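User: My instructor asked us to take a sequence, write out its structure as tokens, and then describe one feature of it. I'm not sure where to start. Here is the sequence I was given:
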Amino acid sequence: MKTEVLKEKYIKYNLTKDDVFKHQHYIIICRSGIDKIQAQEGITIDYDVINCEKDFCVVKANARKEGAFIQTFGSALKGGFKDGNCNTWYVMEMAEKRAMSRAVLKLTGFYELGVFGEDEAEDFKKSNNQEPHRHQKGQDYGDGTF
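Assistant: Let's start with the prediction itself. The structure tokens for your sequence are:
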């Protein structure tokens, strides 16, 4: 059932193999896919800065589409694997991207299917997950093939 629902969503939002990939544990949608979904659904997002410091930021996203409303958060803490979740100096932008990805995916039902945005964690980056996957018939690999 989950595979069928995902397949319907991939078709509905015209997602391609460039927009979606399989992480070790999750299906990940890239920024290009998030942007397609947001545009097609007409999702508008306003942001509130909850906390912003030199190496840490939290942003709240207030997202709307067709009468639906959701609030969610994105954060970024500059540092390595053990002491942070962002390896860049632009923590405000990363927190905003993470909040946006979560808002779009939650409003469109992807989150409940275990799909996450590439921006949500450094470990989710496509460049960190380039290991080829062997496709088995009927298995969802997040790239539109089943």
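For the description part of your assignment, you could build on this observation: The radius of gyration is 16 Å. Try explaining in your own words what that tells you about the chain.
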